Amino acid sequence: MQPFLDRPLERLRKVGVRVGDVVVGGGAPVVVQSMTNTDTADVDGTVAQVAALHRAGSEMVRITVDRDESAAAVPHIRDRLARLGVNVPLIGDFHYIGHKLLADHPDCAAALAKYRINPGNVGFKDKRDKQFAEIIELAIRHDKPVRIGVNWGSLDQDLLTRLMDENQKAGSPLTAVEVMREAIVQSALISAELAEEIGLPRDRIILSAKVSQVQDLIAVYVELAKRSDHALHLGLTEAGMGTKGVVASSAAMGILLQQGIGDTIRISLTPEPGGDRTREVQVAQELLQTMGFRQFVPIVAACPGCGRTTSTVFQELAATIQDDLRRNMPVWREKYPGVEELKVAVMGCIVNGPGESKHADIGISLPGTGETPAAPVFIDGEKAMTLRGPAIADDFQKLLADYIER
Ligand code: SF4
């Protein structure tokens, strides 16, 4: 029987890769990244979204570079962000004509902190190797790292066909799904080998192999981690909308991270129309935080509520506090070092309220149905006071602000 993993395994030691000022792999903490969905040629819109993603906690941001206009916009985006004090590494996402865009726009090539290329579509069939080599040579010239990002939706069909033929000749020991997984792994490894042969150092290469099914992702990355020491970018592609995307990404990446696999993550959520793009950053942070890898924002423990809570005061208070903490973190992190370690409890009644509040740095147990309208507040494990009256929520927020300042 497999031993039960009661804590994450040590991170598998992968080669560290510097992306701007951020290190991926080599024992560094798992890095959160995200991607814009603006037209990169729209400098204002892209600057605003990159800044919002960075403020939310994204430590690297990927932008689409799909045509001359977007490549020409990249240096302006980088400069505008710098003037706003947003120094986040920008990653250029290239498909089909990356070699041409990087060659024709040297300012773009210099402004980006990393290039992401897809070996399945760096060029059309007969030109693929040549164009792949051109991008790698440009990366070497500009001293940039490259993420070789295989995606099952644009997998190298020649490689897949060859592996299927070989499997058939050998009597089909592998299922079709297993052959597909092997093709994804091989596509990443062969491309990395090729990049190294061209001269890109090992500490300039990150690999990813994205698929859309949880079990496929786990199988592919376990294999990739076993067969290479390249830093790994984790992500479930086309994870989907709403809770489906959050659950699928968390399940897949949680299992891999627990096994020490993954040096940077992106949660690819399909945003609701007009939805907030920063949600993917929040989910990534919460995944790493709940698993104990990193601490980004104070934890707000709140009970789920039940028939003993007929008012929504405690849910509203818990949500307000969580939102306030998250919004203020960029400033507070600098002003109050260690604030992200704070634990706050907002509980619905006396059943679990006092107990949970005592375990927090500061906690409140709001009155449930039939209880005296009084809310005991616990600070550092001791009952500090009892709040009463209609302004309990506001009073507790003031106490919390005072506590953080102290
Ligand atoms: Fe219900 Fe009270 Fe438990 Fe909250 S603490 S879930 S209100 S019994």
TrEMBL record:
It catalyses: (2E)-4-hydroxy-3-methylbut-2-enyl diphosphate + oxidized [flavodoxin] + H2O + 2 H(+) = 2-C-methyl-D-erythritol 2,4-cyclic diphosphate + reduced [flavodoxin]. Residues 17-285 form the IspG TIM-barrel domain. GO terms for molecular function: 4 iron, 4 sulfur cluster binding; 4-hydroxy-3-methylbut-2-en-1-yl diphosphate synthase activity (ferredoxin); 4-hydroxy-3-methylbut-2-enyl-diphosphate synthase activity (flavodoxin); iron ion binding. SUPFAM superfamilies: Nitrite and sulphite reductase 4Fe-4S domain-like. Coiled coil: none annotated. Its EC number is 1.17.7.3. It holds the Pfam family GcpE_C. Keywords: 4Fe-4S, Iron, Iron-sulfur, Isoprene biosynthesis, Metal-binding, Oxidoreductase. Residues 300-400 form the IspG C-terminal domain. InterPro entries: Dihydropteroate_synth-like_sf, IspG_bac, IspG_bac-typ, IspG_C, IspG_TIM, NO2/SO3_Rdtase_4Fe4S_sf. The keyword Cell inner membrane does not apply. Binds 1 [4Fe-4S] cluster. Pathway: Isoprenoid biosynthesis; isopentenyl diphosphate biosynthesis via DXP pathway; isopentenyl diphosphate from 1-deoxy-D-xylulose 5-phosphate: step 5/6. [4Fe-4S] cluster binds at C303, C306, C349, E356. GO terms for biological process: isopentenyl diphosphate biosynthetic process, methylerythritol 4-phosphate pathway; terpenoid biosynthetic process. Its cofactor is [4Fe-4S] cluster. Converts 2C-methyl-D-erythritol 2,4-cyclodiphosphate (ME-2,4cPP) into 1-hydroxy-2-methyl-2-(E)-butenyl 4-diphosphate. NCBIfam families: ispG_gcpE, PRK00366.1. Belongs to the IspG family. This is 4-hydroxy-3-methylbut-2-en-1-yl diphosphate synthase (flavodoxin). The lineage of its organism: Bacteria, Pseudomonadati, Pseudomonadota, Alphaproteobacteria, Hyphomicrobiales. The gene is ispG.
